[in-house]
Amino acid sequence: MTLRRAVYAAALVLALAVCPAFAPTALGQTPPPAPNDPGIGLRLLEAPTNRRDDPRAKRYIVDHVNAGTSFTRRIQVTNGTDRDVTVNLYAAAASLNNGDFIPASGHAQNDLSQWITMTPSTLAIPRGGRADATVTVAVPGDAPPGERYAVALAELPPPPGQGLVGLASRVGIRVYLSVGPGSEPSTDFNLDTFQPINETGKPGVSIHSCNTGGRALDLGGSLKLTNGPAGISAGPFTSTQAATIAPGTCEDLKILLDPQIPAGPWDATATLRSGTKEKTSQARITFPSPGGTAKAVKAHDTNKTSDSPFIAAAAVVAFLASGLGLLLFWRRRRRAPA
Amino acid sequence: MKFRRIAAVSATLLGAASIATFAPAAHAATSGQNTLTFQLSGAASLAIAVPSNPSAVSGSVTTGSVVPVTLSNSTVTDNTGSLLGWTVTADATTLTDGASPAHTIATTNLVWLTGTVAAGTTGLLSGVAAGGGGAFGVAPITVARALANFGGGTYTYPATVTLTVPVNTYAATYTTTVTQTIA
What we know:
The complex is a heterodimer.
Chain A: H1 2-18, H2 23-26, E1 39-44, E2 46-48, H3 55-59, E3 61-65, E4 70-80, E5 85-97, E6 100-103, H4 111-115, E7 116-119, E8 122-125, E9 130-138, E10 146-156, E11 165-179, E12 189-199, E13 202-211, E14 217-226, E15 234-238, E16 243-245, E17 250-256, E18 266-274, E19 277-285, E20 297-298, E21 300-303, H5 309-335
Parallel strand pairs in A: 3-11
Antiparallel strand pairs in A: 1-4, 4-9, 5-6, 5-8, 5-10, 7-9, 10-11, 12-13, 12-20, 13-17, 14-15, 14-16, 14-18, 18-19, 19-21
Chain B: H1 2-22, E1 37-39, E2 46-49, E3 66-78, E4 86-92, E5 95-96, E6 104-105, E7 110-114, E8 118-119, E9 128-130, E10 134-135, E11 141-146, E12 153-164, E13 176-182
Antiparallel strand pairs in B: 2-3, 3-12, 4-11, 4-13, 5-6, 7-10, 7-12, 8-12, 9-11
């Protein structure tokens, strides 16, 4: 009896520990819906389970599929304006330009946007209301491999009655779609060189980073300074610039620091991240005087296996726990009378 | 004895559960025909509110005369909690008088300038800035931008759209639609 009770208790504790996210829902505490954000809003209602840990997949449609595949995602449009509106839903082309993801003007199309249909194509939403729609991506069987970009848009046309300028607005969900046979191309990048800079009195580092994988990156990160003058450390400083980098291309990501930071020399350690992929590199640098320039320094990797450190940790825990269990069973059986 | 048995069972359970919980996450199968999805909870949207249409303006058809249109605040809200940043771009349609045949003015004569970006009560200004602005007609103009790790909450900014009347402009009442896109 005691054993059974203990097992139940252990199972309950385990369930709560493993599924903390579900606990409040299980208790039936659904918070009342918050008022809509001003204007028109758009969000994804679902994301693929195999990208549960990827923050990009919760906001964008990020996927890798074989040619000939089609899939859907549900989205929700909110009306936070002071009137009833009719919103147009359509997909348009997008491109990566100078580190920015730029939706094309108007209804301009590319391959990927032509594979996307949004149903319904218009949504009548009362003031303060919200409505759901479906984005279907149907990749033709003869689609050449590669990564493509588009944007799934909800557009609010200008209200009637305008002078020279009528104002419209659109909210988009970015689509990063990789097409090709087999498994997904890797996400990878390097931190090639650190260029110490000084912009209007603010020292900083311009990190030359290249996308060496097959997927676009949304890079951001931070910089730490150690082993400085008199052994002091500073940071971490968060990047003041984000970069969206297409496969096979490079961008410079700037991290500007406090003007009080001495020139150095320093051991500069930068950690950049895109989704779940993280890379850390280090270089010894000295900041130039304001307006001056310094040579770029080759950085070296300090961490090559940061993809999913917690998975490794979980595996070790699982292995040890199973081993302990087996050992205890074995010892118990040996001691038990025949 | 009893304690050992309990400990053994619990440890084995824990081990098995850990494997079950974490193993699939380790490089799960690639998406195929039947991608499994899970629900995203919360009401976390990305939103934009543009002001009501600015009132009609008039100007001279003399080449080079300038017709400024002031736009009151646009509002951007990022309550997605993703902190992936956002970019607001703008584009404009060709100015036309709607006649048949229509008289038009190319959008390259129309210039966007974003005013000062202000953080709302739920926003923080660092990492958020106005874009460079510029003439329409070549590529979408960057209006404002939030970097990765920033841009959560609400932000507002005014803007100015200025028409510089080009040579050989027909006297008429022109209209254009300026669209701001956030993604």
